[in-house]
Design brief:
Strand content: 15-25%
Radius of gyration: 17 Å
CATH topology: Spore Coat Polysaccharide Biosynthesis Protein SpsA, Chain A
Distance between the termini: 29 Å
CATH architecture: Alpha-Beta Complex
Number of domains: 1
Largest sheet: 9 strands, mixed
Mean pLDDT: 81
Strand order of the largest sheet: 3-2-1-4-9-6-10-8-7
Shape: globular
Low-confidence stretches: none
């Protein structure tokens, strides 16, 4: 059986509002309470009191939450350090959730079904929690195989090389579950030395395609990632409005 831990990155300042919404998302909290260990990771933050304030917003509703502070200003180095640390502790897989993520379903049965399938099957090494298989099939990119987890939920396997020309290759910057050994192969020395997260994301996208990895996609979006990091105040305000609306009126799955 696989052993899962999380990487939930946060940074800079002004994340208190996001953390409060995170703590109100019962479906997302359910997902995290059904993995082995939750890590909320700060990087490039010097204000310890700020970290404590964020921690107070979310710690009560998570069973196995741990707060880590990576002093490096580099997101890429923090990510690799976290992967190595998890590997040493015996974890096999990682769930990546930006702190401005939100679950799109109230149906905890579906969440449990996806987690159970991932944990029990060795052949699945990378599962996107954001992109839907329909976004590929409607562009005539067909999966190698499709499995039905239940009457409403299915999972398809794609070759990453087939996704090269699509706009949907940004798997590494959106919520996913992946094998730690695979991630460490992708996050090599070149990745660790890149100056910015944006450069790192671009490099990992090219690595995923070049090495032709198997990408698993659900027929439903499980988690939506917001853009609270935008420097545009209007964009941030719009995204928070959508997040509030989603938390109030979740659909069965979207």
């Amino acid at each position: 059986m696989k052993k899962l831990a999380s990487f939930i990155p946060t940074h800079t300042t002004s994340r208190e509002e996001v953390s409060k919404y995170f703590n109100k998302d019962s479906s997302l909290l359910f997902l995290l309470n059904n993995i082995d260990k939750v890590f909320f990771c700060f990087h490039d933050i010097q204000d310890i009191d700020y970290c404590k304030k964020i921690a107070l917003n979310i710690r009560d509703n998570l069973k196995q939450v741990n707060f880590l502070l990576y002093k490096t200003p580099s997101f890429n180095l923090a990510f690799v350090s976290h992967l190595i640390s998890l590997q040493k502790e015996g974890f096999t897989d990682l769930i990546y959730l930006p702190d401005d993520s939100a679950c799109t379903t109230k149906n905890t049965f579906f969440i449990k079904e996806v987690l159970n399938y991932y944990k029990k099957n060795k052949d699945i090494l990378f599962l996107s929690l954001t992109y839907k298989n329909l976004e590929f099939t409607k562009n005539n990119i067909l999966p190698n195989k499709t499995l039905h987890l239940n009457k409403k939920l299915s999972l398809s396997y794609f070759d990453s090389k087939d996704l090269r020309e699509t706009k949907f290759i940004d798997f590494i910057n959106k919520p996913f579950i992946a094998n730690i050994d695979l991630l460490l192969k992708l996050c090599d020395k070149t990745y660790s030395q890149l100056a910015t997260k944006q450069e790192g994301d671009y490099y990992l996208r090219s690595q995923i395609v070049k090495k032709n990895n198997k990408i698993a996609l659900l027929n439903k979006r499980l988690i939506r990632c917001f853009y609270y990091n935008s420097t545009n105040r209007d964009v941030r305000r719009k995204e928070l409005h959508i997040m509030r609306k989603l938390l109030q009126h979740k659909k069965s799955l979207v």
